[in-house]
Design brief:
alpha/beta; Rossmann fold; globular; six-stranded mixed β-sheet; seven-stranded mixed β-sheet
């Protein structure tokens, strides 16, 4: 029964002028990097593998996950090293860094690794769970019930210990109450009032996105083309109910930053991961199953997005495409595939709804 989700983080001194958020940041090639290691190359930590894949090795120092317990707080050594200046950047498991970083003599930044995965087999975000014997459904339901009832206490403890949260754990979701919904709707209304320059969908299409997402009980939604987060907020209205998450891709850093701010203001930052960069390349790191895909980006790229994402969509999942009046090749592709069933709504900006039958 998962009761929280956390992530690996970058840790560095705030007085060093660093802003590292991704393993692709060029700064990681020129600074001293500390990383938690296990010692076995095959079963090493995800950050150790991510650095190795990029050839970032010569400037890296390994710190054992376990440490020498004859010493006080051995797992804290990697965080202590940042504060002392022995290394410039540490890559550590979030709950460890979140606890020890505020206890240092100098201010440290603790920044979640982004995106939350490096490849289909290398995630940086993990659910923390309690396991029961296979088939012991009674105990599993009892544990889920305890987690539900004591969610407030669990969250308070996690905050007290500085645990970075990476969204709501998939199991036993708590449906959002009316206040949470009102908060999202308020931000949507504010965005509309400020003008439609970067509103990715009209409100009628946004409502359709929410309805379709909630109807299929989506746990994972992938959006191509975040813009400033307007369509993503409609998805989050549904995901609050289904206990799901949104992974949304945006190539423009300014719009990505605006989207993060809007998600934060709406109280759904924990549900939405904004991935910066060219989605044609970045989607290669996604893992299935995906319940809903929404394509609303470069029109000439629709077919490429479809071909890359379709294998990840579960049978019964949906592929949604916006502005389909501009993408004849895409419409031809989805209507010619016997494994897909497509209908097109001409209202709003034009929305193609494709069901993956098998």
């Amino acid at each position: 029964a998962p009761y929280y989700r956390s992530t690996y983080v970058f840790v560095y001194r705030k007085d060093r002028g660093l802003d590292v958020r991704s393993f692709d940041d060029p700064a990681l090639r020129r600074v001293r990097v500390g990383v938690q290691v296990i010692g076995d190359d095959y079963t090493n930590t995800p950050p150790a593998h991510a650095l190795s894949r990029r050839g970032i090795v010569g400037n890296v120092v390994g710190y054992t996950v376990y440490g020498d317990y004859a010493q006080p707080d051995p797992p804290a050594r990697i965080i202590d090293a940042v504060a002392k200046g022995d290394i410039d950047v540490a890559i550590a498991w979030g709950p460890l860094a979140g606890y020890f970083a505020p206890r240092q003599a100098v201010p440290l930044a603790v920044v979640p690794v982004s995106p939350p995965f490096d490849s289909p087999d290398l995630p940086f975000v993990f659910d923390i769970s309690m396991a029961v014997r296979r088939g012991d459904d009674g105990l599993r339901r009892e544990l889920d019930g305890v987690i539900q009832r004591r969610r407030g206490e669990i969250d308070a403890l996690l905050r007290e210990f500085g645990v970075p949260r990476a969204g709501v754990a998939d199991a036993a979701p708590v449906p959002a109450g009316p206040d949470a919904e009102k908060q999202v709707l308020s931000v949507l209304a504010e965005m509309r009032a400020q003008g439609r320059t970067y509103l990715s969908v009209p409100p009628e299409d946004g409502r359709a996105l929410r309805l379709l997402t909630e109807a299929v009980g989506a746990k994972t939604v992938v959006e191509i083309g975040t813009s400033t987060g307007y369509s993503g907020l409609w998805f989050c209205l549904a995901l609050q109910r289904t206990g799901g998450r949104l992974i949304t891709f945006e190539i423009d850093p300014g719009r990505a930053a605006a989207a993060r701010k809007n998600f934060q203001q709406a109280g759904v930052a924990g549900l939405a991961t904004v991935v910066e960069g060219d989605a044609h390349e970045k989607v290669a790191a996604l893992r299935g199953p995906v319940d809903v895909v929404f394509i609303d980006a470069d029109k000439e790229g629709y077919v490429d997005y479809l071909r890359k994402l379709l294998p990840l969509v579960r049978p019964g999942g949906l592929i949604l495409a916006h502005n389909v009046g501009m993408v004849a090749e895409y419409v031809k592709e989805v209507t010619a595939n016997p494994d897909l069933e497509t209908i097109i709504y001409r209202e709003g900006a034009g929305l193609a709804v494709t069901l993956k039958k098998r």
